[in-house]
Amino acid sequence: MKKILVIEDNKEMLENIAEMLELFNYSVIKASTGGSGVEHAKSDKPELIICDIMLPDFDGYKVLQLLEENPATKGIPFIFLTAKAEKSDIRKGMNMGADDYLTKPFDKADLINAVEARLKRNEFLRHTYTRDMNGLMEFIKEAKRFQLQELDTSKYITKKYAKKGSIYNEGEASGPVFLITQGKVKTWKMSTEGKEFVSGILSPGDFFGYISVLENKPYSDSATAIDDVELAIIPQSDFISLITYNQEVSAGFIRMLANNISEKEERLLGLAYNTVRARTASALYSLHNKLQPDGVIKVSRDNLAGLVGTSPESLIRTLSDLKAEKVIETDGKEIKISNPEMLERIMKFS
After folding, report:
1. What are residue 239's phi and psi, to 5 degrees?
2. Nearest to 93 by CA among 311, 276, 267, 251
3. Does position 126 have pLDDT exceeding 90, yes or no?
């Protein structure tokens, strides 16, 4: 039985919410103040928290802030209750990391639908998929639950390359995205002096070829089989859908794309749980350090919004704020990081 913590100072409202949830076999933990709610979250480890914004000791925003600062409670799905429908109140809560909100009065269907959607999202995000063809197929199957019905797994094939075989060459139009299931692959560039510069050695479980797809540009490097290799081929259109269509799917798929889950899991989960500002900083910081050695990020706003897990409109507002703070510079679609240190601080502490 899943546990849900409800923090609400109105006793009648608290009892009504608890009764509705218990009818659907949820175990309800009740708190009437922000402080007691935070303590229950630490001790009872609920699967989801429903919290009123207006509380007698401190408001729901402070509750969320305290929970997000604590590693033991960070990332618990969080739904705000509010009697206000003003966009500024809603936006503030969502930017702080809330998953959803309910405007009073609401009925049983509104409450249960919101709860079930958030729990399903959390299960999807935290599930670990094997980084092979079976894991990819399992992920696609789950992604279809989020209205990604156009994904056609019959098009997903494996292809073998002999040792030293060329997979793609620098300057070619970008095509599918690759997942290594057997063997090793090197990515490399040719210097102006005609020397080969190896940019990466990839092994089973690694994805590659996706940066050019995100940028909608030709391949910026070449990929060659080091030994006999088997690759799973992900159609480009499906990859774009997985990255951009839905925040839940995008966050889960970005987690799969990481080369080393144990080292990058916290950063990648931040794309799902952190504020829009922190997620934007994280995406820009990663692209700046790992993928854009010249310091200029060339990626469409739509694709960057998909990586961040927000709408293009929210992304553009955040980029405007970072530009005003002189953290970044923009020129058309290009983004240049002016202050990487400040970007890292925003990523960690927003």
Report:
1. -60, -45
2. 276
3. no
Rounded Cα distance, 40 and 37, in Å: 5
Virtual torsion, Cα 223, 229, 230, 236, nearest 10 deg: 0
- Asked, as a colleague might, if the bond just before 218 is cis with ω within 30 of 0, I would say no
209 φ, ψ (degrees, to nearest 5): 90, 0
The long-range contacts involving 157-161, CB below 8 angstroms and separated by at least 24 positions, are 157/232, 157/233, 158/133, 158/230, 158/231, 158/232, 158/233, 159/230, 159/231, 159/233, 160/228, 160/229, 160/230, 160/231, 161/225, 161/228, 161/229, 161/230, 161/231
pTM: 0.49
- Report d(CA 120, CA 249) in Å as an integer: 12
Q: If DSSP codes are grouped into helix, strand and coil, which group holds residue 9?
A: coil
DSSP structure class, residue 34? H
- Of 42-56, 200-214, 242-256, 270-284, which one has max mean pLDDT? 42-56
Q: Rounded mean pLDDT of 278-288?
A: 81
Long-range residue pairs from 189-198, CB within 8 A, at least 24 positions apart, any chain: 189/220, 189/221, 189/222, 190/222
* Residue 172, pLDDT score: 93
* Beta-strand pair 177-182/207-208: antiparallel
What pLDDT, on a 0 to 100 scale, did the predictor assign at position 42?
A: 93
- Cα 276 from Cα 314, distance rounded (Å): 8
Q: What is the pLDDT of residues 22-37, one digit of tens each?
A: 999 999 999 999 999 9
User: What Rg, from alpha-carbon coordinates, does the chain have?
Assistant: 22
Q: What is the overall mean pLDDT for the chain?
A: 81
